[in-house]
Amino acid sequence: MAKIVILTGAGISAESGIRTFRASDGLWEEHRIEDVATPEGFEHDPDLVHRFYNARRAAAMAATPNPAHEALAELEADPGHDLLVVTQNVDDLHERAGSQNVLHMHGSLFGALCHACEHRWPAPEVMAPSDPCPSCGRAATRPDIVWFGEMPYRMEEIWHSLRAADLFVSIGTSGNVYPAAGFVADAMHAGVPTLELNLEPSAGSRMFDEARQGPASVLVPEWVRERLGG
Ligand code: OAD
Q1: In a shared domain, residues 38 and 94
Q2: Is the domain of 228 the same as that of 141?
Q3: pLDDT in tens, 132-164
Q4: I want to staple 10 with a disulfide (CB 3.0 to 4.6 A). Which of 20, 73, 171, 187 is the partner?
Q5: Number of folded domains in the chain?
Q6: d(Cα 36, Cα 44) in Å, to the nearest integer?
Q7: CATH no. for residue 48?
Q8: Which residues bind substrate (predicted)?
């Protein structure tokens, strides 16, 4: 049974119509990271932050999985493969394509978190700063998204899986944000072979044993067909 750890980023959802962060028309061209993706930004203007993520949630709900998400679900269903999808994405397109073993290291648009008592619950479609926490009742609702300056979720589990993997594959991520950007080096040090599938060379492309360039909707199904021997 081949153990594969897959890291995905915004590029895998781009062809589903979800904007990436660092493209010339990306989200970070229109919004300052400090304003909408940091705890300080939230403290300063929670309304703005909620509006930003409400719009991201609406875009994710309107999108549908593309052949890249679907191919990963198909590979996971194969009895010869043990797949873990570690995603930096906060959309739910992997799950909607049928993937089951998905770890959202940067959180999810579909989760709410009380920053007063840390209670978590499913996010409503539209969130506002005045929403009371269902557990402690305080108006301290935030999206359950990992912001800059915060620790991504389940890191020990990810590093453990990475070290035990037979292959590490990075798909649709620019390699700018740590710790995810360091997974290729972690895999390399553990002697795990590495493959990158991305539209263009990423910041860390040269560290991968193999890097293929093209759209995820083509590269990922192609690679999955190779794995499944078809
Ligand atoms: P980026 O926007 O930084 O990078 C997206 C990558 O996907 C780029 O390298 C593109 O070339 C590539 N790409 C675009 N379209 C593609 C396609 N159709 N097929 C294949 N590749 C494609 O997004 P991420 O690397 O995911 O974090 O960004 C990482 C983190 O930075 C995000 O999780 C987010 C952001 O700030 C937080 O908000 C905490």
Answers
A1: no
A2: no
A3: 999 999 999 999 999 999 999 999 999 999 999
A4: 20
A5: 2
A6: 10
A7: 3.30.1600.10
A8: 53, 56
Beta-sheet strands, E only, within the chain: 2-8, 81-87, 102-104, 107-114, 120-122, 141-145, 167-171, 194-198, 210-213
List 69, 94, 104, 106, catalytic entry: 106
For ligand 1, residues with CB inside 6 Å are: 9-11, 14-15, 20-22, 26, 37, 88, 106, 146-148, 172-174, 176-177, 198-200, 202, 215-216
Q: Which domain holds residue 32?
A: 19-62+108-145
pLDDT tens per residue, range 177-208: 999 999 999 999 999 999 999 999 999 999 99
Q: Same domain, yes or no, for 96 and 71?
A: yes
Residue 187 · residue 204 · CB < 8 Å? no
Mark whether 6 and 25 lie in a shared domain: no
Ligand 1 atom nearest the C-alpha of 148 is 39
Q: Which atom of ligand 1 is nearest to the CA of 180?
A: 29
Q: Residue 130 annotated as binding?
A: no
Let me know how long the chain is.
230
